[in-house]
Structure formats: C-alpha cells, structure tokens
Specification:
The relative contact order is 0.22. The two termini are about 35 Å apart. The strands form 6 sheets. This protein has a 7-stranded antiparallel β-sheet with strand order 2-23-20-25-18-15-14. It has a 7-stranded antiparallel β-sheet with strand order 3-4-5-12-7-10-13. The chain has about 350 residues and is mainly β. The chain has helices spanning about 25, 75-80, 150-155, 285-295; strands spanning about 10-15, 30-35, 35-40, 50-55, 65-75, 80-90, 90-100, 100-105, 110-115, 120-125, 130-135, 140-150, 160-165, 170, 175-180, 185, 185-190, 195-205, 210-215, 220-225, 230, 235, 240-245, 250-255, 260-270, 275-280, 280-285. It has a single domain (about 25-295), classed as Jelly Rolls. Helices cover about 5% and strands about 45% of the residues. The chain has 4 helices and 27 strands. Bound molecules: manganese (II) ion (MN). Manganese (II) ion binds near residues 86, 88, 93 and 130.
C-alpha cells in the first residue's frame, strides 16, 4: 500500500509529554471513536481506502502508525489494487486480507502472494521499495494494511525482509481469533516485533461477548470490519476504530447484532519516540525526510529496485514519483497522550 495523496500532510507522531484534550473521558466514556477518511489509492479506476490512522485526533496506537481498511470491493468496478513500485523507510507493513489475493514484489528480492488469514510483514528499515497488485483471479478485495513504526535503535540496522505466517485459529466461546503478531488468548505469533505490541483478527458470532485479557501497559484500537460491535459498552461503528488508553487489563467486546462480526485488534506499548511520517516515509526530522525523497527521485541505492512488476494498466506508471514537499520545514504536531483508564 502506498500513501498516494497528492499533497500528503506531514504528521509528527508523539505520545506522552503535553497534556491533551481527552474528550471521550470527559463524559466518563473510556472509548474514543476514530473515524475514517476516504483516500483514493490513485489510478484510472481508483480504489478507495478508509484511513483511520494517522489522524489529527490520534496518530499512533502503540507502534501502529497507519491503518487502511478497504472493501469488500467488486474489483470489476474498482479495478482492485495496483500500486506501482514505491519506497518505504523506518517502518514495517502488515498486509492482512479477508478476501482476494495480492501479489507482492520488493527490492529485497522477495515475492509473495498475500492471502486471507495470512500475515505478510515487510520490513523497510533503512529503505525498500515494493509493488502490490491484486491478482487477475480476484473478484472481491477486502482487507487492511497497517504500518508499524520501527524504534530508532533498530530502524537503520534491519535489512529488507518479507515474512509470512499463517496463524492457527484460536477458538473461544462465541468466536475465534487469528493472532498474527504478539500474544493474545494464549497464542503467540512467532514473528519477531521490535516494540511490545499485538495484532489479531477476531470473529464474534451474533450475540457473543468476549472478555479479552490484554496487557494493561498497552493502548488498543479495535477496527470494526463487520457487525454491530461494542467495546466496553460503547458502539464502534463499522470502519471506525474504538480506542482505549492504557491501564485496563480486560477489553469487553460484544456483538450486539444478528450477523457475525469481524474486527481487527491492534495494540502496543505507547511508542515513546517522536516520528515524522510524510508520504511513504517514516523518519525523525525534516532533513531526513527531504533526503529520503531526493534519494528515491534519484533512483538511489537506499531503495533498490523492483523486478517483475506488471500492473493492470499497460500504460500506467512503472514507479510512483514522490509528491512535492511542502514549501516549509515539517513542523511537529502534538499527538494526544494515551488516556489512562481507572
Ligand atoms: Mn507500500
């Protein structure tokens, strides 16, 4: 997935520090609702994604710094996904599908087919580029792409990697879960992470209630894909994220509807480092972002090259150019600190 906004905002992401407004807590409600904004991925038949992170309201949940949710889309109408080679730095991409298939190629020499219920994790670190194209057989495309910011101590030392893991479902009364990163419901993903975090798909049957044990040091987000879900008694509409702060050891998830519900749980320890996100880069300061952009435009070695990309449009771009930087230096923007549940 690429951030294809023509004039991407810079987003400085920070936790802790200054006290911020805690609107949801003022009313004694422990859950903050983060609404999505629609973002076209670009191309002649642009597929639109629903982006809940980053937002002005909240830019990170643990190390999770980007969340796109899409579909179910009839690809005969939307064209599906076709993202030409584009760069990343300082992050890992998590591709997680509910339906359809996406072919991935990256400059680390990795190719992979992203399938429903299977984690595909790409580590950008110092620099990588990749392409993402839904397969010709795909009729419905439906899933999420999430980014994880890498801590400063490891971000430049990690090589280009692409990891695959298909978790076994964990059953519980009224549903099941696929734990793709971290530990939940007694299941631990073998895929290494670089800060304490968790990621899982959870399905709830109609009427099911799940009291989910979680790490009280984590903040959590519940992205609802389908169903009438409440989190700690607060309705979380479809395609929004219900956010809980740190300090609670149990999340109460309920499917209030008559149809099955599906959600993606993301969580982690407050990241504790300020980052700057601009376009597809995560960095630490304005000069670094400028340098990444120049190196990508100059076909620099930092990013390598993708071999074998074939898009849906024979006349389409073979490489996504970086947008223009804003004419001013990227300025910090305060993120609200995680709220603390009592
Ligand atoms: Mn990407």
């Amino acid at each position: 997935m690429s951030n294809t906004e023509v004039h991407p905002d810079e987003v400085v992401c920070q936790d802790g520090g200054l006290p911020g407004p805690r609107a949801a807590c003022v009313d004694g409600v422990p859950v903050e609702i983060i609404e999505a904004r629609d973002v076209p991925l670009g191309g002649p038949r642009a597929m639109t994604v629903r982006r809940t992170l980053p937002q002005r309201q909240r830019s990170m949940i643990g190390a999770w710094c980007f969340a796109d949710h899409y579909g179910p889309d009839d690809v005969s109408a939307t064209g599906g996904m076709d993202v030409a080679p584009h760069p990343h730095t300082g992050l890992q991409t998590v591709s997680w599908l509910f339906e359809g298939a996406i072919d991935h190629i990256d400059s680390g020499g990795n190719t992979g087919r992203v399938l429903p219920g299977e984690l595909n994790l790409m580590t950008a670190g110092y620099g990588i580029c990749h392409s993402e194209v839904s397969t010709a057989e795909t009729t419905t495309l439906h899933g999420v792409q999430l980014w994880l910011a890498l801590p400063d101590a490891v971000r430049d030392g990690l090589g280009r990697r692409f990891e695959h893991y298909a978790p076994d479902p964990v059953a519980f009364e009224g549903g099941s879960a696929l734990v793709f990163l971290g530990t939940l419901l007694g299941q631990t993903s073998p895929v290494a992470v670089h800060s304490p975090l968790v990621g899982a798909e959870i399905r709830l049957e109609a009427g099911a209630l799940l009291a989910l044990d979680v790490d009280p040091g984590f903040e959590h987000g519940v992205l609802v894909d389908a169903g009438e879900v409440t989190l700690d008694g607060v309705a979380v509409p479809r395609a929004t994220v219900g956010y809980t702060g740190i300090g609670t050891g149990i999340l109460h998830l309920r499917n209030e509807g008559t149809e099955p519900a599906r959600l993606v749980l993301i969580g982690g320890a407050p990241f504790g480092e300020e980052i700057i996100m601009w376009w597809n880069f995560v960095g630490r300061d304005s000069d670094e972002i400028t340098r990444y952009r120049e190196e990508w435009q100059a076909h620099g070695d930092r990013f390598g090259r993708v071999d074998g990309y074939v898009g849906h449009d024979p006349d389409g771009l073979t490489r996504l150019p970086a947008p223009a930087l804003p004419g001013v230096r990227l300025h910090p923007r305060q993120n609200r600190p995680p709220h603390v549940q009592e």
